[in-house]
Design goal:
Strands 3, 4, 5, 6, 7, 8, 9, 10, 11, 12, 13, 14 and 15 form a 13-stranded mixed β-sheet that branches. Helix content is 10%, strand content 53%.
């Protein structure tokens, strides 16, 4: 039955919700999930960054049925590309023998993450193998819960887990979002006696509008909740992300999938009592396609390759950026704190073609989160850096 909305005597059809099941995601197995990712550019000045966060917060605040989320008003950095192979389970894969219940493995960098798609249950992951070590989770990790539709919710684990380092490491590997492990490292001293649970909820549905087009979507809210933090009597939601998953998955052979995500991290003010808020810390929309794994070339990399900073987090007083330039170009590296103030300018000058290692000396900086802006010619990138003491 079509639901109608009456506004000032005009009858408007409501956007319909939809349902996704395990068979919608079977197309992944045996394919490389190739994505072009457009990260939101927060801007250079404190005012630009504040305005961007307000715009992202307005998108976050739209929850419930029949919403429209417009990402076209935001500014974006030059696109990046990635290709993630979803391999059919094979016991000859590294670490596979530890995860016999898996039906596929995701290859992310040098880590194999093992999981299974259960038709009447969900999309679960058991752990990962990286190098000679294997990380096994205390309970299988539910990324999606089927049937996936408006109002469904789930959590992990059934009892709060105490090994926060393990969970942060696994989530960082699974999502590719280093903000999770950085947040853990930033608050490590406060988290010594803490426990954690993760909650998911499909909290809205409607239309996602991006520069690449519009899609009907479900929105999944994921919350990482920590209890027992030193000095806080109430649980803290240290990381919340909102992921728009599109109806493209319902096609038997999707040609193009458009999705988006906004991540927020906790901000704790100085003073007593401290003010705790969630601050938008990153956002993107992505256009993805599928390629056979056996013939899946890595997508073309940007003409300029930016790697690092490494190590990150750092407590050594120095970290390193690596730039690979196809031609000689002017380069500027600037460091900002979260107030938008420039605290350092580690490099200014002309670099020839080739690979260059640029040190960033953080010896005298207060502990915390910093933004590294790398300017190469007319292009620029922003990377997060966590400084520890």
């Amino acid at each position: 039955m079509l639901t109608l909305l009456f506004v000032a005597g005009i009858t408007l059809p409501l956007q319909a919700q939809f349902t996704l099941n395990a068979d919608n995601f079977q197309v992944l197995i045996g394919k490389a999930y190739a994505s072009t990712i457009y990260n939101v550019d927060f801007g250079d000045t404190q005012d630009e960054q504040a305005q961007t966060r307000l715009a992202l917060q307005a998108l976050i605040d739209k929850r419930g049925p029949s919403q429209t989320w417009d990402f076209t008003t935001l500014n974006y950095q030059p696109p990046t590309t990635s290709s993630v192979p979803y391999l059919a389970y094979d016991n000859s894969l590294p670490g596979a023998a530890d995860f016999p219940d898996a039906d596929h493995a995701i290859l992310l960098g040098n880590a194999y993450i093992y999981g299974s798609l259960l038709p009447d249950d969900g999309n679960y992951y058991y752990g990962l193998a990286a190098g000679d070590s294997t990380l096994t989770l205390p309970e299988r990790f539910p990324v999606l819960k089927f049937p996936l539709t408006d109002g469904i919710s789930w959590q992990w684990p059934s009892m709060p887990a105490t090994d926060l380092a393990l969970i942060a490491r696994f989530l960082t590997a699974l999502t590719g979002d280093s903000t999770i492990i950085q947040t853990y490292e930033q608050y490590r001293e406060l988290l010594q006696g803490a426990t954690v649970q993760i909650f998911w909820e499909v909290d809205a549905y409607g239309t996602l509008v991006t520069p690449a087009g519009s899609r009907e979507t479900l929105r999944i809210k994921r919350t990482v909740r920590v209890s027992g933090v030193t000095g806080f009597s109430q649980p803290l939601d240290i990381f919340i992300s909102y992921f728009w998953i599109s109806a493209d998955w319902r096609q038997p052979n999707p040609v193009e999938i458009i999705q988006a995500e906004i991540a927020t991290t906790i901000s704790v003010s100085q003073g007593f009592p401290p003010l705790i808020t969630q601050v938008p810390s990153g956002a993107y929309y992505a256009i993805s396609t599928f390629r056979p794994v056996a013939r899946a070339p890595v997508p073309d990399r940007p003409t300029v390759v930016v790697e690092g900073p490494y190590p990150n987090p750092t407590n050594t007083g120095q970290t390193m950026l690596t730039l690979t330039l196809p031609t000689a170009q002017p380069v500027v590296v600037r460091i900002y704190n979260l107030l938008g103030q420039e605290v350092a300018q580690p490099f200014v000058g002309q670099l020839p073609a080739g690979t260059h290692r640029l040190p960033v000396v953080s010896r005298n900086w207060p502990a915390g989160l910093y933004l590294c802006r790398i300017e190469v010619g007319l292009q620029h990138w922003t990377r997060r850096l966590v400084v520890m003491r």
